């Protein structure tokens, strides 16, 4: 079957950074589904895994952790899906990604595709929706009850990106005042379209900008960009007994003492934790994807796809990786259709 993979970890400008390859079609066992891939999306995790390093692969490594497709075959222990079902999911970073014609995934982290979306629109959602949902409701501990969040505020650092676009919508749905950071007119406009109430710059001190729009601080912060760079700003902007969550690893030590006097809680969010460690609540990703699909289909949430590339092949995936690495994308970049399919 066709796939896009790599043998060496190279700069995206190198023609061999991502290659068109042929690999064997897998067979599902246990609770795995075999998915016929219809569309995929690209995320920063793809570019981080592919980033240059002194390592080579004997067999092609397949990336891609956003998929929408059709169940082709089910493993013997599957109970949630059957052949023909249309699904969407992010998968597991410890297994081959979905940049291939067919893909294996554990059904416990798969959701039913929103009926109102085509495959490309659905492929834009899983990784970002899981990340945003887990961060807001599991890590930050937000209630989904609007009345309980009355008067509460959240600062989303990097509100115009893929995760920020979904997090903004979910936070508004939960009744919070959303303040997003953006650096360009087009990203600020996109964040406002997603529901942000206010926009500030992530290049300037947060607290002064918050004060200027009437906020002495914020109750929650969700960091989607450079945890280390924004650490002091976050410590200054969070209110006493507030909570901060980040998805971005740091290559420098964080001074946790900055949070002590305010009794501020800090949490990491990594949406691959559940499938990576086969946690007992792994099926929660199935449940939340189904809930996101329901919210999409009733018009409460919207997809975040902003650009489509056709077909799915190495050249277009290199283009998509380059767009993400340039740091100027808003929403999500999606690829659809394998050549000849």
UniProtKB/TrEMBL annotation:
Subcellular location: Cytoplasm
PROSITE patterns listed in its UniProt record: QOR_ZETA_CRYSTAL
Chief localisation class: cytoplasm
InterPro entries attached to this UniProt entry: ADH-like_N, ADH_Zn_typ-1, ER, GroES-like_sf, NAD(P)-bd_dom_sf, Quin_OxRdtase/zeta-crystal_CS, Zinc-ADH_QOR/CCCR
Family recorded in the similarity comment: Belongs to the zinc-containing alcohol dehydrogenase family. Quinone oxidoreductase subfamily.
NCBIfam families for the chain: adh_fam_1
Official protein name in the record: Zinc-type alcohol dehydrogenase-like protein
């Amino acid at each position: 079957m066709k796939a896009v993979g790599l043998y060496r970890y190279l700069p995206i400008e190198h023609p061999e950074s991502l290659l068109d390859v042929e690999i064997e079609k897998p067979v599902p066992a246990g609770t795995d589904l075999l998915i016929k891939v219809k569309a995929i999306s690209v995320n920063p995790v793809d570019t981080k895994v592919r980033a240059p390093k002194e390592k080579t692969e004997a067999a092609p490594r397949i990336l891609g952790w956003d998929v929408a497709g059709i169940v082709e075959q089910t493993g013997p222990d599957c109970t949630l899906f059957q052949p023909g079902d249309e699904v969407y999911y992010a998968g597991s970073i410890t297994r081959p990604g979905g940049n291939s014609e067919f893909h294996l995934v554990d059904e416990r982290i798969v959701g039913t595709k929103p009926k109102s979306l085509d495959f490309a629109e659905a492929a834009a959602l899983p990784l970002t929706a899981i990340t945003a949902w887990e961060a807001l409701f599991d890590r930050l501990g937000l209630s989904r009850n609007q009345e309980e969040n009355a008067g509460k505020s959240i600062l989303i650092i990097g509100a115009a990106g893929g995760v920020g676009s979904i997090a903004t919508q979910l936070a508004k749905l939960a009744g919070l005042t959303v303040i997003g950071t953006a650096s360009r007119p087009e990203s600020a406009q996109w964040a406002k379209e997603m529901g942000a109430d206010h926009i500030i710059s992530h290049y300037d001190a947060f607290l002064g900008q918050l004060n200027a729009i009437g906020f002495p601080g914020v109750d929650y912060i969700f960091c989607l960009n450079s945890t280390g760079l924004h650490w002091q700003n976050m410590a200054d902007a969070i209110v006493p007994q507030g909570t901060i969550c980040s998805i971005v690893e740091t290559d420098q030590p964080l001074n946790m003492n900055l949070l002590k006097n305010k009794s501020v809680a800090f949490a990491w969010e990594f949406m691959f934790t559940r499938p990576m460690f086969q946690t007992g609540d792994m099926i929660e990703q199935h449940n939340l994807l189904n809930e996101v699909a329901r919210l999409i289909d009733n018009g409460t949430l919207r997809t975040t796809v902003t650009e489509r590339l056709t077909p799915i092949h190495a050249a277009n995936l290199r283009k998509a990786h380059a767009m993400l690495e340039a740091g100027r994308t808003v929403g999500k970049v999606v690829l659809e259709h394998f050549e000849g399919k």
